[in-house]
Amino acid sequence: MTLATGAAASQGTGGLSILILALPILLLVWLMFSQRRRTKALGEAQQAVQVGQEVLTTSGIHGVVAGLEGEVVQLRIAEGVVIRMDRRAIVPLSIAQAGPGRAAPGNADPGTTNPDAGGTNPR
Protein backbone atom coordinates (compact mmCIF):
# COMPACT_ATOMS: atom_id res chain seq x y z
CA MET A 1 0.00 0.00 0.00
CA THR A 2 1.38 3.36 -0.92
CA LEU A 3 1.23 6.49 1.15
CA ALA A 4 -1.39 8.05 -1.16
CA THR A 5 -3.83 5.12 -0.95
CA GLY A 6 -3.48 4.91 2.83
CA ALA A 7 -4.32 8.62 3.19
CA ALA A 8 -7.35 8.24 0.92
CA ALA A 9 -8.65 5.29 2.94
CA SER A 10 -8.30 7.15 6.23
CA GLN A 11 -10.18 10.17 4.88
CA GLY A 12 -13.15 7.98 3.98
CA THR A 13 -13.46 6.56 7.47
CA GLY A 14 -13.16 10.03 9.05
CA GLY A 15 -16.58 11.02 7.70
CA LEU A 16 -18.09 7.80 8.99
CA SER A 17 -16.61 8.41 12.45
CA ILE A 18 -18.12 11.89 12.57
CA LEU A 19 -21.49 10.46 11.52
CA ILE A 20 -21.34 7.76 14.21
CA LEU A 21 -20.54 10.39 16.84
CA ALA A 22 -23.13 12.91 15.60
CA LEU A 23 -26.13 10.56 15.44
CA PRO A 24 -26.44 9.93 19.21
CA ILE A 25 -25.99 13.63 19.91
CA LEU A 26 -28.71 14.53 17.40
CA LEU A 27 -30.99 11.88 18.93
CA LEU A 28 -30.50 13.34 22.41
CA VAL A 29 -31.20 16.87 21.18
CA TRP A 30 -34.37 15.69 19.41
CA LEU A 31 -35.55 13.84 22.54
CA MET A 32 -34.90 16.89 24.70
CA PHE A 33 -36.92 19.22 22.47
CA SER A 34 -39.81 16.78 22.02
CA GLN A 35 -40.04 16.26 25.79
CA ARG A 36 -40.01 20.02 26.35
CA ARG A 37 -42.84 20.43 23.81
CA ARG A 38 -44.89 17.66 25.51
CA THR A 39 -44.32 19.19 28.95
CA LYS A 40 -45.42 22.61 27.72
CA ALA A 41 -48.58 21.18 26.13
CA LEU A 42 -49.43 19.29 29.33
CA GLY A 43 -48.94 22.41 31.46
CA GLU A 44 -51.22 24.43 29.17
CA ALA A 45 -53.87 21.70 29.32
CA GLN A 46 -53.68 21.58 33.13
CA GLN A 47 -54.14 25.35 33.35
CA ALA A 48 -57.12 25.21 30.96
CA VAL A 49 -59.09 22.68 33.05
CA GLN A 50 -62.71 23.77 33.54
CA VAL A 51 -65.51 22.78 35.90
CA GLY A 52 -67.38 19.76 34.55
CA GLN A 53 -64.41 18.42 32.57
CA GLU A 54 -63.46 14.75 32.92
CA VAL A 55 -59.90 14.26 34.15
CA LEU A 56 -57.49 11.52 35.17
CA THR A 57 -55.17 11.94 38.15
CA THR A 58 -51.53 10.88 38.11
CA SER A 59 -52.52 8.09 40.52
CA GLY A 60 -55.12 6.74 38.08
CA ILE A 61 -58.34 8.11 39.60
CA HIS A 62 -60.98 9.17 37.08
CA GLY A 63 -63.26 12.04 38.03
CA VAL A 64 -65.03 15.24 37.05
CA VAL A 65 -63.83 18.69 38.07
CA ALA A 66 -66.32 20.04 40.63
CA GLY A 67 -64.52 23.27 41.48
CA LEU A 68 -61.33 25.27 41.06
CA GLU A 69 -59.45 27.16 43.79
CA GLY A 70 -56.26 28.51 42.21
CA GLU A 71 -53.84 25.57 42.10
CA VAL A 72 -56.28 23.22 43.91
CA VAL A 73 -58.91 21.28 41.98
CA GLN A 74 -61.97 19.78 43.63
CA LEU A 75 -62.53 16.45 41.93
CA ARG A 76 -65.79 14.49 42.16
CA ILE A 77 -64.85 10.80 41.96
CA ALA A 78 -68.20 9.32 43.02
CA GLU A 79 -71.65 10.58 43.95
CA GLY A 80 -71.15 12.72 47.06
CA VAL A 81 -67.36 12.16 47.16
CA VAL A 82 -65.20 15.19 46.37
CA ILE A 83 -61.44 15.20 46.86
CA ARG A 84 -58.95 18.05 46.57
CA MET A 85 -55.97 17.60 44.28
CA ASP A 86 -53.15 19.80 43.09
CA ARG A 87 -53.75 21.01 39.54
CA ARG A 88 -50.41 19.52 38.44
CA ALA A 89 -51.63 16.03 39.45
CA ILE A 90 -54.47 15.92 36.92
CA VAL A 91 -54.62 15.49 33.17
CA PRO A 92 -57.65 16.14 30.99
CA LEU A 93 -59.03 12.77 29.89
CA SER A 94 -58.77 13.70 26.21
CA ILE A 95 -54.98 14.09 26.57
CA ALA A 96 -54.61 11.03 28.79
CA GLN A 97 -56.31 8.80 26.20
CA ALA A 98 -54.12 10.12 23.40
CA GLY A 99 -50.89 9.58 25.34
CA PRO A 100 -48.17 7.13 24.35
CA GLY A 101 -48.69 3.49 25.25
CA ARG A 102 -52.45 3.77 25.60
CA ALA A 103 -54.88 1.77 23.49
CA ALA A 104 -57.27 3.76 21.35
CA PRO A 105 -60.96 3.42 22.23
CA GLY A 106 -62.34 0.25 20.65
CA ASN A 107 -58.87 -1.36 20.45
CA ALA A 108 -58.61 -2.45 24.06
CA ASP A 109 -55.94 -4.88 25.12
CA PRO A 110 -57.54 -8.32 25.47
CA GLY A 111 -55.95 -8.71 28.91
CA THR A 112 -57.95 -5.82 30.35
CA THR A 113 -61.63 -5.31 30.99
CA ASN A 114 -63.97 -2.43 30.36
CA PRO A 115 -64.11 -0.29 33.54
CA ASP A 116 -67.75 0.57 32.76
CA ALA A 117 -68.69 -3.13 32.76
CA GLY A 118 -67.88 -3.46 36.47
CA GLY A 119 -65.28 -6.19 35.94
CA THR A 120 -61.81 -6.44 37.43
CA ASN A 121 -58.50 -6.29 35.70
CA PRO A 122 -56.91 -9.76 35.69
CA ARG A 123 -53.36 -8.37 35.62
Automatic annotation (TrEMBL):
State the UniProt keywords alphabetically: Cell membrane, Membrane, Protein transport, Translocation, Transmembrane, Transmembrane helix, Transport
Against SMART domains, the record matches this protein to: YajC
Subcellular localization: Cell membrane
Major localization class:
membrane
List residues traversing the bilayer.
12-33
For this protein, the record's InterPro entries field holds:
Preprotein_translocase_YajC
The name this protein carries in UniProt is Preprotein translocase subunit YajC
* Species the sequence originates in: Ornithinimicrobium pratense
Taxonomy, top ranks, is: Bacteria, Bacillati, Actinomycetota, Actinomycetes, Micrococcales
